[in-house]
């Protein structure tokens, strides 16, 4: 539970449905899909799901401008009073679209003060934006970290695009890993709550995620969320991981158990869409398309 945490942290998590297991029964979140571009390639990506950008069936998210996103936030906030958090989590990487992402948060701060802001990123560009994140009072940041060993990373990430240059293989994974861990350190040094999501990929990083858990805990991450790779033919193409199986529920639980003694583990993640609206596990996004919101005026 959250009751044994310091007061300032309890204040930050008590109505955040992902950071507090208790809160997820009562508080809702919404994602606004304002961030189409990405600066890396994950082998498991198909850009429909977030905030670990999973691969599942579904329609492509409705992409919004920051102004449309703010309008949608106001419409949802008045229809769903339990909506406490607005997240930008895709469909690409929010920090590969910094102008759109931060403009959206600025507008939400102005038009709907009191709503918590949440950001999910692969971490490559994070260190460049920590000042802006702090200035806009984005109190919750999720980084998807799947490895700390670049040899393993090379099997997950075919390339990254960093400082105007494309990198591949072990070199790419090494840059990404250094940036991710630096990002965790910079956020926690500022008192910004940092959650780490990891996608569990059997035979690739499943044994390794205990080491990832220790690395992020020692750098001050608040919560670790191990999520299963979702991979089956009916879920469509998984970029670069064709034929890769996902872990069983038992395998995920066993890994969560072996990390639990060291750090808070999130066990109620529902692997949301980049435009999800509502309580975790429910998706009311189709009630709030831009077309319907415009018709509400
Ligand atoms: Fe969204 Fe992610 Fe913020 Fe939550 S989702 S950006 S931290 S407000 Fe939550 Fe959804 Fe799991 Fe993400 S259940 S996929 S952990
Ligand atoms: Fe896809 Fe996200 Fe990976 Fe980018 S960071 S390739 S959007 S899963």
TrEMBL record:
Domain of life: Bacteria
GO molecular function, one term: 4 iron, 4 sulfur cluster binding
Keywords of this entry: 4Fe-4S, Iron, Iron-sulfur, Lyase, Metal-binding, Nitrogen fixation, S-adenosyl-L-methionine
Radical SAM core domain boundaries: 24-273
Entry cofactors: [4Fe-4S] cluster
Pathway: Cofactor biosynthesis; Fe-Mo cofactor biosynthesis
Purpose: Involved in the biosynthesis of the iron-molybdenum cofactor (FeMo-co or M-cluster) found in the dinitrogenase enzyme of the nitrogenase complex in nitrogen-fixing microorganisms. NifB catalyzes the crucial step of radical SAM-dependent carbide insertion that occurs concomitant with the insertion of a 9th sulfur and the rearrangement/coupling of two [4Fe-4S] clusters into a [8Fe-9S-C] cluster, the precursor to the M-cluster.
Annotated family: Belongs to the radical SAM superfamily. NifB family.
Official protein name in the record: FeMo cofactor biosynthesis protein NifB
The encoding gene: nifB
